[in-house]
Design a protein that fits this description.
Number of strands: 13
Strand content: 5-15%
Distance between the termini: 82 Å
Radius of gyration: 29 Å
Helix content: 55-70%
Oligomer: single chain
């Protein structure tokens, strides 16, 4: 009798231990699943462009595929063995997912040039249609194929764990569904936090390797716990050992592999690449003969400036508002973490420049030497911005501009000139920085006889978004709103908006009140005044548009639509 009770008690304890292990395993795997979802979403957005479009599509694809996987789990007869095999597959596919995506996209980008070089074709005859175009289209949907496969495998985990729990207890568990889904949701929440705090700022390929290693370890633990219940356990253990060796070797070389693949994603040599909490920064270099190297900065795969023509862009950003303002003692720069606009502002001898910048690592790249493999990789950038951040008159305020502006208002700050140099509104979070609400707050910081200039995207490639900036400034209460434009070789036709509160419009002030432009700035008064002229019908087409608001996301939607249409036209 006593032996029977002890045996029963031992059985319950063993069962409880196994069940707790299963629930813990499920929670960990849920965290891995959400990390895969975030990793693939952000990487697809970076390499394909249209960041939000790619992110939302990937998340939708993976959610659907998880549902498909949950349905397919019913087809697996042996839940224990099936679970181990699924974890092996997730670990293997997850470990190479980012590398595969990068390789295929890089290959399709380089393949036409390889063909042209091998067959001696001139550059204007490089093949782009037919099979080449279809291969490129496949490369663009390949990230979502990988996401679907991983999502389907992840979706099988919950039904299999639920079946295994009932197998252990040998009864139909009353609260089985609630327990497994509870563990899944909690684990997913923890996984999301781990991604944001730790994994967002490291290379995606390396992050994928770390997560896949967790899948492999969890699968091996499950194999050990359920050893006697799993057929072919020795073969499966051998596969785990083989995969562990593969992941170890891949981890040792992942930095070089990823760097090589990233190099092929850009036309020029990648000399610096870094994930921050907010964006992916890439710096490239092109050497042509004995001339000074040309550097290009990319944020999330989008070109931000090229050293070959940034001087013209920043002259057009800074100079008109300086000329239109009665004074230029106190300046506010929103964005501009590269220090290039700061460089040009300093030429006007202001007393103080406040810079609102979100990403501290971005400013670090342009303010102090950074070594990679023992060599300083950003010395050309420090020379380009003339070490502008080292000037004592420059005060950098880190934080989200929308909130930082409120802090400046609370402090009673007032600026002669405000310059807004933010990335295009390719993300819903950036939309708020092009909204009526934001410009209404910024207006409170501008002196009555001051001027504000805003980077406003392309009047050619994204005309409606460009015009909407001016409409939004008007809706925010600025008295005189104008636009101006010029051709920046790297970007093409580019535009800015400029506004004043009282008195006269900016162009009238520039024409009436002559102010000497610093000699280092390569544009003059006539060039600037000519930039206010547009072809007939462009400005007039604003009549069918409305202003942008936080609530309607109009700038983001217009910008996304314009550039998506542009990519379709280029692809055809």
């Amino acid at each position: 009798m006593v032996d029977g009770l002890q045996e029963k008690s031992s059985f319950k304890l063993t069962t409880f231990f196994i069940d707790v292990s299963l629930i813990s395993i499920l929670a960990v795997l849920a965290g891995c699943g959400i990390v895969y979802e975030y990793l693939l979403s952000h990487y697809a957005g970076r390499v394909l462009g249209l960041m939000e479009h790619a992110i939302f599509t990937m998340i939708g694809v993976m959610i659907v595929s998880m549902g498909v996987g949950a349905l397919l789990a019913n087809k697996i007869k042996d839940a224990n063995k099936g679970f181990v095999i699924i974890e092996l597959l997730i670990a293997f596919i997850g470990s190479i997912s980012i590398i595969l995506i990068a390789w295929l996209i890089a290959f399709t980008n380089q393949f036409p040039s390889i063909l042209a070089e091998n067959y001696g074709m001139p550059e204007d005859l490089i093949p782009v249609g037919g099979a080449i175009a279809r291969l490129k289209q496949f490369a663009e949907i390949f990230p979502f194929i990988v996401g679907f496969i991983l999502g389907a495998l992840v979706g099988m985990e919950i039904p299999l764990i639920a079946r295994i729990r009932e197998e252990i207890y040998a009864v139909r568990l009353k609260h089985n569904t609630g327990t497994v889904y509870g563990a899944d949701y909690i684990g997913a929440g923890v996984g999301a936090a781990i991604f944001i705090v730790f994994l967002l700022a490291i290379a995606p390929a390396k992050a994928a390797l770390w997560v896949s290693s967790v899948n492999m370890i969890v699968g091996f633990i499950f194999l050990a716990v359920r050893w006697r219940k799993i057929s072919n356990n020795i073969i499966l253990a051998g596969l785990h050992i083989f995969l562990a060796v593969f992941l170890f070797l891949l981890m040792q070389n992942i930095t070089n592999i990823h760097q090589s693949l990233e190099n092929t994603l850009y036309k020029d040599e990648v000399v610096f690449s870094q994930n921050t909490d907010f964006q992916h920064i890439t710096l490239t270099k092109r050497q042509i003969g004995n001339a000074a190297p040309i550097h290009t900065l990319y944020l999330n795969g989008r070109s931000q400036f090229c050293s070959c023509d940034e001087a013209l862009y920043h002259a057009m950003l800074v100079t008109p508002s300086m000329l239109a303002s009665a004074r230029h003692k106190n300046i506010l720069l929103i964005g501009g973490g590269d220090g290039l606009a700061v460089r040009d502002i300093l030429k006007w001898q202001p007393e103080q420049i406040d810079v609102l910048e979100l990403d501290q690592k971005m400013v670090s790249l342009f303010s102090k030497p950074i070594k990679v493999d023992g060599q300083v990789v950003n010395d050309a950038l420090l020379a380009l911005n003339e070490n502008s951040f080292s000037d004592k008159r420059v005060n950098v305020i880190y934080g989200d501009a929308f909130n930082s502006v409120e802090q400046l208002i609370a402090r009673g700050e007032n600026y002669d000139v405000i310059i807004v140099d933010l990335p295009d509104p390719s993300h819903p979070d950036l939309n708020k920085l092009y909204s009526k609400q934001f410009y209404t707050k910024v207006k409170l910081l501008l002196a009555g006889d001051g001027a504000i200039a805003i980077q406003s995207t392309s009047p050619y490639h994204a005309k409606d978004a460009f015009l909407t900036v001016g409409l939004t400034l008007r809706a925010a209460g600025f008295g005189f709103v104008e636009r101006y434009h010029t051709n920046i070789p790297t970007f093409g036709e580019w535009g800015w908006s400029i506004a004043t509160l009282h008195g006269q419009a900016a162009s009238s002030r520039i024409e009436r009140d002559f102010k000497p432009i610093p000699k280092q700035i390569a544009i003059d008064q006539d060039f600037i005044l000519a930039s206010f002229k547009f072809a007939n019908g462009i400005i007039e087409s604003e009549k069918h548009l409305s202003y942008n608001s936080i609530d309607n996301n109009l700038m983001y939607l217009l910008h996304e639509k314009s550039w998506l249409n542009e990519e379709i036209l280029v692809g055809n």
